[in-house]
Structures are given as C-alpha cells and as structure tokens.
Amino acid sequence: MAASLSGLLKPWIPRVFLVRWSRYNPYYLEPEVRKEVYSQPDSELSVEEKEQRDLKMIRPIKAATSGVTSSVFSDPVLSKFINMMMEHGNKVLAREIMTETLENIKRKQVEKYHKAPEGQKEEVECNPYTIFHQALKNCQPVVGLASIRKGGRNYQVPIPLSDKRRRFLAMKWLITECRDNKHRRTHMYEKLSQEVMLAFVQEGNIIRKKNELHKMAESNRAYAHYRWW
Amino acid sequence: TSGCGQQQEAVAVESELEPFSVFRTQESDPACQSEKHLGQFYTLPPAHFRPLFPHGLPYRYQQQVKTFNEACFMVRSPALEVISYLKKADYSKPALRYLFYGLKGSGKTMSLCHAVHFCYTQGWLVLHIPDAHLWVKNCKELLPSSFNSARLDQPLQATTWLRNFRTTNERFLSQIKTTHRYAWTKREFTDEGRPLGELVNQGISRVKSSSDVVGALMKELRLQSGQPGAGFRLAVAVDGVNALWGRSTIKKENKSAVDLEELTLIHNLRKLVKNDWVRRTLVLTTVTAWSPTQLTGFDSMDPFIPVSVPNYSEKEFESVYLYYLDRKWLQHPQSRTEDGKKELVFLSNRNPSMLDRICGFL
User: Where does it localize (chain B) (predicted)?
Assistant: First the structure.
C-alpha cells in the first residue's frame, strides 16, 4: 500500500513534449513564413499592420510545422493533397509520389507539344500545376447529400457544401479512386497522372461520380426544405 | 577541317538568330568544337543518335531525349580536354588511358558519351561498355564456361552487349577478318579469315557461347588494331570501371560469393584495359571518387590521366536554365523569376543530376 501511494504522489512528467498539436495558449501568434512581408519598408505599412508588427515583437510565436516553407514554389493546395496521400506519417514518400506525378504529367504534355504542328502548339497546356488545379476544380461537387431523419425515415437531403468540404471531397475521391479501382501493378504516380489528365478534360471516373451525386441531389430536390440550417 | 570551314560561314547566319544562340551552337561536329563553345548545347544529328547510343546514356537523359524530340549535349571542359588529347595523341606509343572522376551526378557518363561521339565521327571502332556495375551484380543466369571450366559465363548480358555492339559498328563487321579458328562446340566453329560479323552473329544466336564470343572479339580487336596495315583505330569506353576491381554481389548456387576473376566477361575486360598495346586509346569513367587515388584497382589502372568533372559553373548553369526554358521544361511561373533561379541554385548546388530532378517537377 505504501508503494502504490508513493507512486501516486510522484509528479508525472511526459517524456516527449508535443508542441504543435498541443493546445497552444491563445496568447501565442501564428508564424509568418512569407519572405516578402519582412522586406516591406515602413512607409508601405498601414497603422494596423504596424500595430501587428509591434505585437509580434512582444508576444510568443507558435512553432512552424515542417510542412510550411518560405520557398517560392510552395503551394498550399499541393501541401494539403500530399498530407492526404500520406500514410503512417511517411511524408517523404507522399511528396516523392506527388513530384513524380507532376513530372509525368509535364513529360506527356511537353512531348505532345513538341510533336504538335505549329498551329496547335498554343492549345497544349504544359504546366502541370494549372492542370492539377483545374482538374481538382472540375472534380469538386456543387451540392452534397446529408442523411436527415424525419418521421421515422431517413431522407437524403441536398445541402450546400462549404469550400473546404468541396476541396476535401475532390481530393479524397481522387486518392481513393487511384488506390482502389486501378490495376495493382501500376505505380501510384502513373495512376494519379492518368486520373488528373482525364479530370482535366471532364472525363474519367471521378467526374462521373460527381455527376451522379449531382443527379441524386437534383432528384431529391423535393426534400430540400427538410434542411433547417 | 573542311566541315569547320562550312561552319564558319554559318556563323554569319547565327548572328541573325541572336536570342536563340546564346546557349546553343550549330557546331554539331565534336572535332570542330573549341573553347568558345564552352557551356553551349549542340544537337546530335538524329542519324548518329540511333547507332551510337543503343546503350550507354543515363536513363533520365534518354527520357529527356524522348520528351524534347532532340538529343542535345553540353560542351563542357572535361570532355573538350579529352577530345583535344585524343586529337594530338601519338598512337605509336602504348595506349593512353583517361579517367573521368567526380561526385555523383556531376556528368561523367555524359562527358564519356561526348568523347565517344567524337570517336565515332572520326571513324574509329567504338567498344562502349555501358555500365560495368551491371555486369557485376544481379546476374540472373550463371553458366559454367565451356572454354575454361574454372570460370563462369553470363549469357544474357553478353548477348545484349553484342547486339548493341553490332548496331554501333555495322560498317566494320564486314571489313575485319578473324585471325584464328574458334571452336564453340564439337560441331560449330568459326574459321580463319571470316568477317567479324559472323562471329558476332554466332554469339547472338547461340546464347550459351556468347561470353566466349565477347572474349574472342576483344582478342581479335586487340591483335588487329595494333597492326600498321589495319584500317581502323579502336576506342574503348568503359563506364564505371572501378566495378572491375571491386566486389560482386553474385552468388553461386551453393551461396558462396563469386570472385571477380572467375567471370569471363570481367576477365576479358581486365585484359583489354591493360595498356600493353599500341594504336588504341582508352577512355573510362569511375563513379563517385573524390580523388583518383581512392580507386580500387588503382594499381592495374596506373598510369592514367585523371580528368575531373565538376558541378556546373555559373555560365553552364545559365546555359542549362535557358535551355530548359526554351524547351518548355520549366513551367512553374515562379521558376522564371530571379528568386526562383536563386532557389534552384541553392537546392541543386549546381549538381547536374539534382538540377535535372528538381526541374522535373517545377
């Protein structure tokens, strides 16, 4: 009994201190990663921005995650997609797959560009970033369905989706489509690049899934008034 | 030299294409390239590309050739230096050996291929072994040699190499004749005086004796190119030559490691690389050596002329940057700004292969 009591009296000190996902005191401010903010001269700043800057000199700042960079080539949408693709915390592999996908898309398009006759060269889009962003935009659904319980029955009710939810759904569909419905022996970057190219021209399984969702929402229009928010 | 004269007339035309020719040059003959072409890209004529390089180019460069629809080499100082030595060398003395050494990804294989292109345009017979490391590891089939029972054969590697050799050196195959009689099995043999093409075809069709065919080929070429009456000069290019004296990962069926001396291909290559013959040159590369003295097999390679292959200089980096912009390879809008360029320099440290990988996804 004495042993257990003394065990309880010992203060518990955690071995590993998690900093980022701990609940920071609201006192802490977000870090500023962009380089151009620091090179602005005083004259350009308005009064509020000057106050913000003075505040940052006094208050403590949260630690920056390892995913944000001050590189000119960083893209928040791409970072989010890489995080969604990541499994077991293997960010290196996820980033590798992403860069290989972009390279694959670019290679195919540049090859097409160089083989195209003079008149059609401008129509070939070579930038893998614009292709990826456009494909994601094409995959985003406009309305979603929510299951609402009314009078003992569950109805699929069309609801508006927030921007974040739409982006999330597009990325999630892209990743699950590539993981599940493709031949097992192809590499992930090949599968991804094929799906992205199809989504860019409004073809492919993901666009089909989005259109089916829209049709379901359209057919369930009558129940729209069941939504109370 | 007559080709160079024609190129000088083309200089007048070049000045009209000012923005085009800062990083490109029209001089596609390596013999006519000089220091003023340093850092510029020259295009390999498509007719030369297929026979010259069925093997030997790095995989990423082959992909690049396919994507851009053209094969462009950069004129760099190590390759230019070796080409100038090749032009001035005295061929009555024993063979000279040149060694490209440098960090990983600094362009040794590409410099070797540039030198090989020069040898090809001069009409020499080119013996190009793409990567000696591939012969020393991951061997799927090992046969006991029919010629010497202590040694082991590698039929697959030997046949692929013979096929590529045939593509590169078509015109010599009918000119050169064998000087010995070779018996491959009890019933198959190649007589004296038969053209070399027959020897090569024998090796390709009869896979079992292909390693011995490779050995016989090397012996023939070694004997014949030394004679003053022979109509050709031999250039041997071995990529990754430190594999010939390093370790091998091949195992025999009883799981014991294979000594490199026991492999027929390696044995014959080592004999070829010794410099006890005349009227030939050897151009070789190694992989990832800080200094030539660190090589395994330095004793057998000594004496040789080491040529260091550094990372890109500032001028060469500018040239590669402009080339990628011209070929629409750098697509990210930020990569065209000054900041983006500085970031590329920082991320790649001007290492050619790192720059290639980074620009791949930008």
Answer: Mitochondrion
